[in-house]
């Protein structure tokens, strides 16, 4: 009986040793877990001088085109970035923004470039962080008969996003007689403030960016927009990009440098476009560090 028990233990032990030996000789490969890809940051500039400096900062660049728009896809400090040359104007910017959102799925958008000053306290080279932006071309005129002329100072704002049923006349019209402001994303704005000392050409302040397909040389008109709507600067793109970013729920910030300011005699200086992109680079690097 004892002998049979020993035989059983011997057989069981042999089987265990055989199993261990077999397991230790099985070949294997371990596949690491996947991580979610990083969503790029979208940087927009309307003209070549407002986009190409930043595009040149990128590594591993490939270029794509859609319609009038050019997209530079690359990395900055190993983080994915898409730079878009949107072309000028609210329509171009809205289309370029929507295409970029659908195609590249950005986690944040910064629209940047040059602008003309409305605030007499701002000088050429100063940067305005768009705490808010609005469309400075959406207006409704009062009713005037033939021969009564036109007075733009009497125009009232018109919110094209007020409601789908709100036309220029009728019961719903009053609901649309207001200005719509788009606020900046707090985290992007905080990153801009964190690096504002890196901009040496002028000061960096919060303000309101007005956008419209309008090249304004009338100082009284500038003063009127500044007084009634708080505009710090004017240009042709930011509010349009902000509207698209809001539609898709994407964090947004407009950053504009003054290239001229007729309200205080500041002469046009195109070199400000590069200075603004240098500052935006620092904003992006700080924002990336917080992710």
UniProtKB/TrEMBL annotation:
GO terms for cellular component: cytosol. Residues 1-23 form the signal peptide. GO terms for biological process: L-methionine salvage from S-adenosylmethionine; nucleoside metabolic process. Residues 40-283 form the Nucleoside phosphorylase domain. It holds the Pfam family PNP_UDP_1. The keyword Oxidoreductase does not apply. It comes from the Bacteria. Keywords: Signal. GO terms for molecular function: adenosylhomocysteine nucleosidase activity; methylthioadenosine nucleosidase activity. InterPro entries: Nucleoside_phosphorylase_d, Nucleoside_phosphorylase_sf. The keyword Signal applies. PANTHER family: 5'-METHYLTHIOADENOSINE/S-ADENOSYLHOMOCYSTEINE NUCLEOSIDASE, 5'-METHYLTHIOADENOSINE_S-ADENOSYLHOMOCYSTEINE NUCLEOSIDASE. This is Putative MTA/SAH nucleosidase. It comes from Photobacterium gaetbulicola Gung47. The lineage of its organism: Bacteria, Pseudomonadati, Pseudomonadota, Gammaproteobacteria, Vibrionales.
């Amino acid at each position: 009986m004892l002998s049979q028990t020993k035989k059983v233990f011997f057989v069981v032990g042999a089987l265990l040793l055989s199993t261990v030996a077999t397991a230790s000789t099985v070949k294997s490969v371990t596949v690491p877990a996947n991580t979610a890809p990083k969503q790029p940051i979208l940087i927009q500039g309307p003209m070549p001088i407002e986009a190409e400096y930043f595009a040149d900062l990128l590594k591993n660049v490939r270029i794509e085109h859609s319609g009038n728009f050019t997209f530079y896809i690359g990395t900055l400090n190993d983080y994915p970035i898409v730079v878009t040359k949107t072309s000028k104007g609210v329509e171009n910017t809205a289309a370029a923004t929507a295409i970029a959102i659908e195609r590249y799925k950005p986690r944040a958008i910064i629209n940047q470039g040059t602008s003309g000053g409305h605030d007499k306290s701002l000088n050429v080279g100063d940067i305005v962080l768009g705490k808010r932006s609005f469309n400075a071309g959406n207006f409704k005129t009062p009713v005037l008969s033939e021969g009564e002329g036109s007075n733009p100072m009497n125009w009232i704002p018109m919110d094209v996003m007020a409601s789908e049923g709100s036309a220029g006349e009728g019961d719903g019209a009053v609901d649309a007689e207001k200005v719509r402001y788009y606020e900046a994303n707090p985290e992007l704005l905080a990153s801009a403030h964190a690096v504002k000392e890196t901009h040496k050409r002028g000061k960096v302040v919060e303000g309101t960016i007005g956008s419209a397909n309008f090249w304004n040389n009338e100082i009284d008109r500038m003063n009127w927009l500044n007084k009634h709507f708080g505009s710090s600067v004017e240009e042709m793109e930011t509010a349009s990009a902000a509207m698209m970013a809001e539609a898709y729920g994407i964090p947004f910030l407009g950053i504009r440098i003054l290239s001229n300011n007729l309200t205080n005699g500041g002469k046009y200086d195109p070199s400000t476009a590069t200075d603004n992109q240098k500052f935006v680079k620092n904003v992006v690097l700080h924002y990336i560090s917080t992710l």
